[in-house]
Structures are given as structure tokens and as C-alpha cells.
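Encode chain A's predicted structure.
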Amino acid sequence: MANPKQLKVTLVKSKHGRLKSHKACIAGLGLRKIRQTVSVQDTPENRGMINRISYLLSVEEA
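Encoded structure for chain A:
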């Protein structure tokens, strides 16, 4: 079985003043600072978090 696809996720807007659940999604993806990029697996759980806070993120396939 091949490795699952990876997504490069970058935080492009501040997390300050956002809903508590949106801040939890940011933390769940492993993001802490603006312009920080992390690589996450393309799973339904991660996709759900990305979709919820898509207005704060930039996403690329890696």
C-alpha cells in the first residue's frame, strides 16, 4: 500500500480573536505562528479541520 498523500498547510492569517473551535483546529494541525508551514496526511479528519478554517490557511498538495 502506498504512503498516504501529504498536504502542505500554511497559516496565513492570525488566530487571535477566532472561535475557540477554530483555534483548536489550528492547534490540531500543528500550527503555531503565521507563515508556519506543516505537512499533514490527507485524511478525512485533517480535511475537516482544513475545511473549517480554510479562510486562515493556504493549502498545497505535497
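The chain has one domain: 6-61.
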